[in-house]
Amino acid sequence: MAFTDRSLPAREAILRAARVRFGDDGYDRATVRSIAADAGVDPSMVMRYFGNKRQLFALTAEFDLRLPDLAAAPREQVGQVLAAHLLDRWDDDHALQILLRTATTDVDAADRMRAIFAGQLGPQIAALTGDPAGAATRAGMVATQTLGVALCRYVLRLPPVVAMSPAEIVTWIAPTLQRYLVSTP
Fold first, then answer.
1. Is 183 helix (H, G, I), strand (E, B) or coil?
2. pLDDT in tens, the chain (185 residues)
3. How many CA atoms lie within 13 A of 151 on its CB side?
4. Which of 42, 68, 91, 171 is 20 to 30 A from 31 (CA-CA)?
5. 159 Cβ partners below 8 Å, 6+ apart?
């Protein structure tokens, strides 16, 4: 979405107000009307610039995967460690689920999701493998698996995947993550 220079101050005010409001009230209690009031704009401007509350949230919330130090884990268990950790993060963080849902239809939210995986997982993989050049590819492959599971479990709510226990999911995906993380392609 292209914006004129005149719209930039209003957009920035809305983003600032949204960060504070979402931080103070959480996603469910924050409203477009309250964010607009805090920013000193009409609620229609929030909708015009950001589409809806979900898209605004996806652009303003801070997302930290809180990754464990994979280099400190036994090398033969890094896939399991990462699978268990990411599944716990998805289970416990409604905001990540909202970001994923929004990223399927919103370019800015998709950019945010890509940045999270590249910026947080890429350096971990580079440290783990000693191969910074290949880290982005490996992080991308890890993202295909973990985002696919998250999409099926939390967004599409695919019954067989929803019915699985976290331990069962880890058992299924850990070998694939292990291969993406440390095996020679």
1. coil
2. 555 567 889 999 999 999 888 878 878 889 999 999 999 999 999 999 999 998 898 888 778 899 999 999 999 999 999 999 999 999 988 888 888 888 888 787 888 889 999 999 999 999 999 999 999 999 999 999 999 999 999 989 999 999 999 999 999 999 999 999 999 88
3. 12
4. 91
5. none
- The DSSP secondary structure of 79-129, one letter per residue, reads HHHHHHHHHHHHHH-HHHHHHHHHHTT-HHHHHHHHHHIIIIIHHHHHHHH
Distances from the Cα of 62 to the Cα of 99, 106, 112, 118, 125, angstroms: 10, 17, 10, 15, 22
The single residue listed with the structure tokens 């226990």 is 165
This prediction has a pTM of 0.80
**Pick from 92, 79, 88, 103: nearest CA to 174:** 79
Q: Looking at the chain, how many residues does it have?
A: 185
C-alpha distance from residue 161 to each of 80, 150, 157 (Å): 18, 9, 7
- In the chain, the domains with their CATH numbers are 5-60 (1.10.10.60), 70-182 (1.10.357)
Sign of the Cα pseudo-torsion (29, 107, 154, 65, in order): negative
CB 55 within 8 A of CB 102: yes
**How far apart (Å, rounded) are the C-alpha atoms in residues 173 and 145?**
7
